[in-house]
Records
---
Amino acid sequence: MSECSSDGEIDYSPTIDVSSLPEVVQNRVKALKNLQLQTVKAESDYYKEVHQLDVKYQKLYDEINKKRGTILSGEYEPSGAEIEWKNKEEEEEKAEGDVKALTNGIDKMTVVDYDENTKGIPKFWMYALKNANDECLMGM
């Protein structure tokens, strides 16, 4: 049934006349086609549900990003529960009581151009993207 070329490889024919195959083989091909159709339908349903979830959560992401933008620009000042953050590492350092050794005797570092009157977080995205790029390049 298959013809070999001069190098021993089977010649590829892009189309097969299924009607020329035995009936049992034709039935197997039909069964495989039905299974493929079921797979396509299941995949279609899957992507519809994923899209619905994307739409649902995009609204939440948009709200969060809008609030993030107002904090970064200085339009909104977070307070109360919004500024509470529990960091296990900080708690462990405080529990050890050896903070002076960790800071080499430096009580407090100040960052130039930032004080109590600074509005928002200047150059936040510049630093975030710069640091993200540095992290990415470290793996190279």
---
Amino acid sequence: MDSRFGKMKPWIAGSLPFLMICFFFNWIVPGVSEALRFGYYLLLYCLYLIALTFYNIPHMSLTMYLSPEQDDRDSATLYRLFCALSGSVLGNIIVSEFLASVDPGDGITDPCVDTNETVNTNSTRLARNPLEMAFIAANGTIAGFMLISGILLLIGTKERTDVHIGSNGSDKFWKGLKSVMSYRPFYIAIPAFITQLLTIQMMFSNTSLYLVYSLHIDFFYYGIIIFQASNVIHLPLWQMILSKIGKKKTVVLGIVVFIPVLASLFFLPEGNIITAFIFCYLIGLGTSCAQLLPWSFVPDVIDDYVVQTGKRNDAVFYSLFQSFNKTFNGIGLGLSTLVLGFTGYDTGACQQPDSVAMTMRVLVSVVPICLLLISLVFVWIFPITESRRIENSAILAKRRLLHNSSNGALNLKTEAKD
């Protein structure tokens, strides 16, 4: 969509209100039957994911329209991920604070604590309980932050029109899709980096259960906050290493550092809260590299594609990377749930069988290590080396210079005729 506001911003501006509304109403419990509630949440969550896609793809593709320089794009990627992950940590803190404000005496009981209190199961939906109101208030606040961040994105960035110089424009969607899917660096990059992003998903979805059932840590949520905070604060560190030794070497270094940490998780003793929290910090260090590097490679793949084909299909690249990422994250989460189900895990139960503890150790150590080893193989054969990346940057800069020189000469001839 080309307009005077840019190519990506209209999509962001148009999807932002729907994204906020769908997000907020996902936390409203309607006073209807269970079957109707299921349909309500299914429809609303599908609409939320559609709005999120319409927001995310242009948001990520905007990186390519902020600057033609690769270093600027790497900095933009770092800043985008830093803000996104910081927002995730902030969201968790907001929800925790609102829930902590709920008075336990307001009819909210812990099902795993034996008390003489009874819960009125026949209460109507006319009055919401304090816990529901806390969730609504917390996520209403988060929706407000979504609005603020979206407005700042729209008014604080400017799409440059000269990024297309050096290319022959973009293909139609289906032609571009076919071209991108057959492009060798792309189909090598997909398994190389999807396995890393899948590793992150495994750690984020399973670490809390690992702390609770394998290590028997009561205050596990502090470990999750340490993990997420470490994941955020180490992004600049990996960006600095990236700028010093190159992207492929940084990926290899990150994997080599992360694998011993993951292997240690299998053998950590139960009940040692200090050791558990130290390893939560180290997990964040490893996932931080896996979070940053895949998205830093996307602009390089696009630049190489432009050099080789003369076409720019930025949105196709980002949409495919995001589609593969979401698909495999869903597969990973589904497989984790399936494996836990086979071992006897019962959601909401106060006690879990011993097999769950061993399963969690495998899911946060053995499985991620296997994924990272697969990633390491594909990173090793990834064809865009640091020298090729620099060469591509020089070729595109030369094309822009020739284009500007040609336009300048044409303008001088026009003026001379006049």
---
Amino acid sequence: VLWSALALADDGERQLSISVGDWPPFFVESEPGQGAVARLVRDIFAAEGYEVKFHFLPWKRAYREAATGKHDATAIWMFAAERQKDFVYSEPVMNERFVLFYRKDTPIEWSQMR
């Protein structure tokens, strides 16, 4: 989760506005619970007494609106150093491992990613 500096001020507010993009199965606006990571983030904050409202937007707009203070945070993003000028990174919400699937009868031979 990327936190805007404005969101880090302790003003006693117990509601958080988090901008996200639609990214099934992690964030899904039309699904009950709004996706696996949405449920996880909501549950983590609920345990600390916060209510989370997700705002589904196109990804660039989700980032921009959080960066300008319209939302407290935006989720979920991979680390990129240039984002540190706008946000403070949380601890990782999830760990992913991207893999390539290929057919057993048509193996792909390669030794490294470029």
---
Amino acid sequence: YSFCTLLGGKPHKMSRSMVLATIASMAHGCTHFILGTPEGDVLGRSMELGGVQPAEVDAPMPWDIVKVPAGREFKPSESDSCKGQAVAGWVGKYSYVGVGYETSDYRVTDGMNMEGLSIGEQTLRMTQYQVPAAGKPAVCWQDMTTWLLSTCSDVPCVLNTLNSTNVVALPGFSSHGFQHWSVSDKFKNNIVIEYLKGELRIHNNTVKVMTNDPPFEWQILNLNQGVMLDTKWSNPAHIQVQTPEFGAIPNQISHGLNLVGLPGDFSPPGRFTRAFYLKQFAERNTPPSNIGEGVDLATGLLNSVHIPKGVVAHKGGPGNDGTWDFTQFASLKIPGQQQYYLRTYNNMQWRKIDLKKTDWKNAFTIPLYNYENGVKDITRDLL
């Protein structure tokens, strides 16, 4: 790993051992959702992590935007978490773009390939990977996103590949590598991949939302807690009392009260429930009619789960150098048009990559953070 970025000022470099210690101490929280439009799906995703240590730095991870052409040879992972597990390398069949933090070998944690296959990994601390089995190839968990993006074109391919391969890790390794994956393709197939108690579990993502712990099945059932939420205007006439000073009581005196009880916290269950109900209400009442409107709605939903730095509790204190969890970047993916959007904590302006117009001659990386805040001065327009 080579970590060297800040929100501003000079880069802060970290050694590989420092990076591993940093990741292990971070909080992880991400939100993923899928919006439908007549022109195709729009996928939204936020990436929340604690910043780079020490706490006074608390900078975003040094993310890179990664572009990799088809035909690249990937060596087996050298991750300490898979050491001695006889994991395999592979040759990529498909070009892809994504975001990663170990970009010397072009691995990513979020991305989309030329066929519109989209994959994102998110923390699931209850994960327990498979163990190597004789006669069955093994892949390191850390290679999962890159491996599938570069070798599969759609969700059926992913399912066939996972059923014939074990995804492994060294028993007892640090929980920073415990992940689950959201996978979508341009044919509107959407699944969630989890490894629990050493077994592969696949879920159809029919609710079109994913966050973190507890596992996906628990999150789905927990949605029943919000069943009374609605977008109807309340009419309490049947229980009102007329008062001489204040008129009819109770009375709806402002808007937004229909969502009282919607979780506003940044826990994974809170974000899962909030993203689901806001998405469902918006799609039912004002469904996006095209990709542009889908991008607008997805941006609004991402804003509803955006985590400002300094508000989520960490384990900091004497002898424990914690960092603040915050939304380091967000992405939008449009599988049917092979378009990938990115924004960062300090620059909320979307930047778009059109995979159909990309030069795939060479693998390439650029820093995700460009030290700009996206503010445009329009003073001259008023002169």
